[in-house]
Design a protein that fits this description.
This protein is α+β, with helices and mostly antiparallel strands and 213 residues long. It contains 8 helices and 5 strands; from the N terminus they run H-H-H-E-E-H-H-E-H-E-H-E-H. The protein has helices at 2-10, 14-67, 69-74, 88-91, 101-121, 146-163, 188-194, 207-212, and strands spanning 78-80, 83-87, 123-130, 171-175, 196-203. The protein has a 5-stranded mixed β-sheet. Helix 2 (14-67) crosses helix 5. The termini are far apart.
Length: 213
């Protein structure tokens, strides 16, 4: 009888096992709760950063729109998503990279507001050349293809801006050829829209970015 009582005393009570199990479950629940709360805080911070970024981007576009109010009102340029668009026919004759007088006058009028904007925002100006999808006409010995034509037009506009007083350290050229049309190349009107030069303010590369390259 005494041996039986001793064995029963040595056995772990069920309530103790149940208590340990509940403690483990509570611990897991607490860990999950902490993770969920941390994720919510991180998500909230990310959303706030995105809202702040978009508000800053909107403010930049409004400043740029105000700086270019006069040429925008005259319809000589367009402004979409922070990109300044100029029809290729205003700047150049077909398949030519020689700047026309009306194009030079337009670029001259853009230099003062763009210079002020770039200086205040500490940004650079990317000048991009675009063409339609038609190949360079046979017999044109000046350009091998649309890539070369778009590159030369972008360089011509860049050099014209610098000649009119823009800081050479604030502007650079890029070429896209027939890539990235604004509309499908289906007829003469659509191709005319795709033959264009765009100018877009872009952030200056930080010293950290340069060091990482």
């Amino acid at each position: 009888m005494e041996d039986l009582q001793s064995e029963l005393a040595d056995e772990t009570p069920v309530w103790a096992i149940f208590g340990d199990l509940m403690s483990a479950l509570v611990g897991v629940f607490v860990l999950i709760l902490v993770w969920v709360l941390g994720y919510q805080v991180e998500l909230s911070q990310s959303l706030q950063q995105e809202v702040t970024r978009r508000e800053a981007e909107q403010d930049r576009r409004m400043v740029l729109e105000q700086a270019l109010a006069a040429p925008l009102a005259s319809g000589r340029i367009t402004l979409r998503d922070g990109r300044i668009g100029i029809s290729g026919s205003v700047l150049f004759a077909l398949n030519s990279s020689q700047l026309q007088d009306q194009g030079r006058q337009l670029l001259r009028s853009l230099v003062p507001p763009l210079t002020l904007y770039l200086s205040e925002q500490d940004e650079l100006l990317m000048v991009s050349g675009f063409t339609d999808d038609l190949p360079i006409q046979d017999g044109n010995l000046q350009f091998d293809d649309n890539w070369e034509l778009s590159a030369q037009r972008a360089l011509t506009v860049t050099r014209a801006l610098i000649a009119e007083g823009m800081d050479p350290g604030r502007v650079f050229a890029a070429a896209f050829g027939a890539q990235q049309p604004v509309v499908a190349n289906t007829d003469n009107a659509s191709r005319s829209r795709n033959r264009r030069v765009e100018m877009a303010p872009v952030p200056r590369a930080s010293s950290e970015d340069s060091a990482g390259d």
